[in-house]
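Q: Entry one of two.
A:
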Amino acid sequence: MSEFKTYLKTDLSRQIEILKDKKVNLKNYIRKEILRIFIIYLTINAIYILVTLSFMNGFWFFIWFVGNFFFTIIFSSKLFDTSGRMKSFRKVSINSKDDFYFEFPKITKNVNQKVNAYLLDCKKLLFKPIIELFVVNIDYSPKKFFKYEKVFESNLFPHLPVDINTYNKENNNKKNSYSKFHFKGSDTVQGYLGDTNIEFCELDISESYESGSGETSGKTYREIFHGLFLIADYKNIQFKTVLQSEFLGSLISEFDMSILNLREEIKLKKIKVQNFKFNKHFSVYSEDDIEARKILSPVILENLGNFAEENNMTIKLSFINNQVFIALGIGQIFEPDLRDVLPLRKINLDLIEKDAERIYNEISLVSDIIKDLRLNSHIQSD
């Protein structure tokens, strides 16, 4: 990490200074936009009071005043809110700000455009050079992510429907109770890590439930996966092998596999391996016992066990069709911290360097798991 900090101060110093200027400009623009909104708001209210005061008695004026007061409080609380939806794929402390993904509030269309422009600048000027420290011949697309079919092929999320659009459309027409899947992402990276051809992106998969009607209606939200989804070459695979994380418990892993077996023609059976640390974090399911043990050599079992022990996240892997699919429940990855540009907050330009260090650490995980799976030596041996 000390070498990387030196790299930030030398090779990336110019980009960081540019981003600092852009962040200050963004902060000033948001302040002016908020001030403009409140001036318009106060002007309309002043005119309203002057015009209507002569027609209102004291009671109705009081009712209007109280309603206007609460409207202002609600508007302000939404405007300055800094928490998004709750994380569920990392072990986090209860009632901590770190339990939530930050979601920048929608203020005005112009502000949103400025924020999105700054995000894109961060990715091109800062995040891409950091990724290039690990991945060569890089093709980086900040606004693109994997197609649903590719993620479905991994068999890492067995409860996902075969066709998400058809499922959502059919369920939306149901009365009283239905569920809907949400599939989105960003920041696709393609290139070579060593001799291994890889591609990865940030993925966000969730499910929402609508139930009941009238006063008994309600909506619940469940995060299926949020993090980094990676695909790498892995030759000579004839059968399917899936490693389910024990992060959420063995019962959930077995339930997922039972769903998958109902959908697949060839059944996956649970494989027992002799490594205590690995078994704490993973359950192995495969069509073929011999190939599964060939893939999961003692060295790889030990490496994956250590990786899971050291990193606080859900980890899932599958070996299918000469590819390895890896899902790392890191959460939000390629988004800079913008909480300090919100109204009434002091700007903190040091957050840009912290964002850079965070991206470096997250991409280091990709490099680590490629090394732990010995993918480069596997390709060379072929």
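Q: Entry two of two.
A:
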Amino acid sequence: MTAALRFDPIRLPPECEDLRKEVRAFLAAEIAAGTFDPHKPQREDNDAPAFSRRVGARGWLGMTWPKKYGGHERSFLERYVVTEEMRVANAPTRRFFVADRQSGPILLKYAPEHIKMDILPRICRGEVCFAIGMSEPNSGSDLFAAKTKATQTDGGWLINGSKIWTTSAHIADYMIAIFRTAPPTKDNRRHGLTQFLVDMKTPGITVNPIKQITGQYEFNEVVFTDTFVSDDHVLGEIDGAWKQATSELAYERSGPERFLETYYVLTELVRAVGRDPDLRAAEGIGRLVAQLHTLRRMSVSVAGMLQAGKEPVVEASIVKDIGTVWEQQLPHRVRDLAAFIDADPSNHATLDEQLAFATKLAPKLTIQGGTTEVLRGIIARGLGLR
């Protein structure tokens, strides 16, 4: 049966635009104080714990969560504005971003009350960092091929195996991970996966950073050797985590960060061509901005669906797939247009630096949040094609 796909137009309410002004003023003050440079590619291995705490103090973490857990009971659209402004400014968000975007909502839905009361307020204060443990060696983005085992023991579980491409594991306080607690059945290969909350300080965890071509150490291999996780750190249904993980990925795949990761090269190109671009530059930039505007409209629509309590898994996958293609191609399109710019605009060196960084960064965008091939499989199923 074909799913009904809708991207209803959403207009941000006035309170969102008031909030946008507030966030921009905050970021301008942080830039003036030297916290980060918006004109340099955001190095994902930059860790800024003090900045994270200041963002938390402004009430911009856990924005949609209940006040009893430190949240602020604001809308997904307001959270969208904060995320968008942080990404556009190249702010150092890595310490809090995963926790705020998807780990917190998972804890809200599935964690025992005492864990919610302990961890969620700390996320809202910008004090803790989370990693996501999904991908494994030899299984790529096929979540259901996970082999890392959780074996039941007295009072909990022993974890053995490894995760790969785990962003921020080397600085994370916690990981929410999928482990195999039973074999898949003949009729359901999704069976047998369980979601756990793992304290990264637990004995038996080894984190091996993976150096990228950019020089970053954003990704990691995480090895578990008889790592003990207590029973109260099981999240949700034993052997039934595939439903939870699918829902979680709707948060990961649909936000503005899914098409703004190389955005800085476009803004730098606009600065380079100035107020009087030639026809070729004007047409090229206009086309890129039109595509970006369409992606943003789709992404805001998904935020509206989340606000309405829906789980737009297919729509989020479409945003991520199209957004990845766009932001991967963006450095090459900008380089083509920049070739016709006058030899020495004031920011030519910055543009060259950003293009070099974005070109090396772009390949990893296919992996994070699910590979293009996996996403297109999800979309095909949603359209009733497989």
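A: Comment on entry two: The chain has eleven helices and eight strands. The chain has three domains: 14-128, 132-242, 254-382.
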